[in-house]
Amino acid sequence: MATQSTGTPERPPIADQVERALTELIEAGRLRKGQIVVFGCSTSEVQGARIGTSGAEEIAERIYEGVERVRARVGFHAAWQCCEHLNRALVVSRELAEAKGWTVVSAVPVRKAGGSMAAYAYRRLTDPCLVESLQADAGFDIGETLIGMHLRPVAVPVRPSVPWIGEARLTMAYSRPKLIGGERAVYALPERDAPSSGSCD
User: Fold this and answer.
1) According to the model, what pLDDT value does residue 193 have?
2) What's the domain range around 161?
């Protein structure tokens, strides 16, 4: 006997959801090779549990896979935010931290202090470290973990076509330079100079 449909479409796998949404963020922000994207994630929320209660490495693995698919194509640097127990420090490669002059702090993230996502990313990097803070070019927040403290101004929200990763709400943003100068300011060169309208030197 055929199974009766519930009428609710089945969501794609977590890695596919992450890949699709992150691709949209990259395109919206016109992100390039070498730029920084900060990732915050509650694997508890992805499962439908309250943040900080049910961390899961297998969920972290799927999210990491989705991010890596896009990172391999684009070449951005990923920074993985820890939970508040490690003051929201970030997992990055030591090479990147040294190149950027970021302040390195001493801790190894684990599930109960740092979070499952940061702990998983730390163990996947060849030479990882934690940095105290940074200003990223874009952010990808799964489960409302609050990554804003690590985004450079001005943050521009991006509404993803995939608003949920698993059961967790997804929030994304990229940053743009501040617009300065007021009403006389010009923010882009014209494609070519307009012809003179009869004025003379």
Assistant:
1) 55
2) 14-178
pTM of the predicted model, to two decimals?
Answer: 0.87
What mean pLDDT comes out for the span 123-149?
97
Q: What residue ranges in the chain does DSSP mark as E strands?
A: 36-41, 77-81, 90-93, 104-105, 128-131, 138-142, 155-158, 164-165, 168-175
The token pair that represents 49 in the structure block: 């549990």
Phi, psi (rounded to 5 degrees) for 21? -65, -40
Beta bridge partners of 104: 131
Mutual angle of helices 57-74 and 14-29, in 10-degree steps: 40
Instruction: Give yes or no for residue 1 having a pLDDT over 50.
Output: no
Per the domain annotation, does 200 fall within a domain? no
Residue 184 lies in a domain: no
- CATH classification of the domain holding 97: 3.40.50.10360
Does the pLDDT value for residue 173 go beyond 80?
A: yes
Question: Number of structural domains, the chain?
Answer: 1
